[in-house]
Amino acid sequence: MTPFLLPELREETVVLCPGATLLRGFALAQSDDLVAILPNLTAQSPFRQMVTKGGHLMSVAMTNCGALGWVSDRKGYRYAACDPAHGRPWPALPDLFRDLAQGAANDAGFPGFSPDVCLINRYEPGTRLALHQDRDERDFTAPIVSVSLGAPAIFLFGGRERSEKPRRLKLFHGDVVVWGGQARLNFHGILPLKPDQSTILGPQRINLTFRKAG
Ligand code: MD3
Ligand code: FE
Fold first, then answer.
1. Which of the four pLDDT bands, split at 50, 70 and 90, describes residue 1?
2. What is the tens place of the pLDDT at every residue in 37-78?
3. Which residues lie at CB < 5 A from ion ligand 2?
4. Are 167 and 155 in contact (CB under 8 A)?
5. What is the CB neighbour count within 10 angstroms for residue 52?
6. Is 120 near ligand 1, meaning CB less than 6 Å away?
7. What are phi and psi of 110, to 5 degrees?
8. Are the C-beta atoms of 203 and 151 separated by less than 8 Å?
9. Whose CA is nearest to atom 12 of ligand 1?
10. Which atom of ligand 1 is the closest one to the Cα of 207?
């Protein structure tokens, strides 16, 4: 018997601050299935680097699935029902994705979470995400559920003010974090992904964020 290899036994729940719960390893048991679904989604709506309102190309490559998707261009940030790359709807949210996000939200104290967006972020070596708040959604009472896959990354999480010095947290393949309540509008970001970290996804990290935007 090697019970220490069972993913279930590596699960752990850590309250990071009021409203933010780290569910270490929560997605490990389903991670192969989550990874296997990604090519079906990206065949319909490929990863692309979006442009900010200020004209900068984002370092993170993104796509979406669900009834809505997060998009950015010279007009700004918004949620849109169709992929601007081709004008058709985003791929549907797979049941496995929805069930995972609902289960995590429920365990973190947010029962009845019903996401309509899964933003899929891809990080390659050097890719970063600058400190920001997520405030493009209509209803800040719904949490955001984030699922980390592939290479580990250092997550920065600050407070409600940009001036607060962010804490650092390393997120690994299979980790899930639920951000709601008082933590919903906290500043956060990702440090540049380190090179030479090869995983199930090669040298990249994929993050799924589930949101209720509409
Ligand atoms: C804390 N993504 O897509 S997920 C984003 O790893 C984003 O790709 C990061 O920030 C990533 O907007 C971080 C963790 C996360 C997501 C939303 C939050 C943390 C959050 C909203 C409020 C507070
Ligand atoms: Fe964010």
1. low
2. 999 999 999 999 999 999 999 999 999 999 999 999 999 999
3. 134
4. no
5. 14
6. no
7. -125, 75
8. yes
9. 134
10. 8
Ligand 1, atom 6: closest residue by C-alpha: 207
Answering whether pTM is above 0.70, one says yes
66 forms beta bridges with 117
Please name the residue whose Cα sits nearest to atom 10 of ligand 1: 189
Nearest atom within ligand 1 for CA of residue 157: 1
Task: Name residue 51's amino acid.
Answer: V
The single-letter code of the amino acid at 176 is: V
Q: What angle do CA 15, 159, 187 make, to 5 degrees?
A: 100
Q: Pull the structure tokens for residue 22.
A: 């780290």
The CATH homologous superfamily to which domain 7-211 belongs is Alpha-ketoglutarate-dependent dioxygenase AlkB-like (2.60.120.590)
Q: Ligand 1: distance of its center to the CA of 136 in Å?
A: 12
Choose among 202, 181, 183: nearest CA to 193: 202
Q: What gap in Å lies between CA 118 and CA 68, rounded to an integer?
A: 8
Q: How many A from CA of 4 to the centre of ligand 2?
A: 33
